Amino acid sequence: MMSLKKQNGFSLQELRQRLRTATNFQDWYSAALALDNLSGAEAWRLSDASRYYDFLDIRARYEQLVALLEEENHEELLYVLNEGIHGNMSGMGRPILYDRALTGTKCLIDEYVTAIADALWVVASSPSNKISLQEKVDFFRRASHCYGRSALMLSGGAG
Question: Which of 5, 120, 128, 148 is buried deepest, with most CB atoms within 10 A?
Answer without folding.
Answer: 120
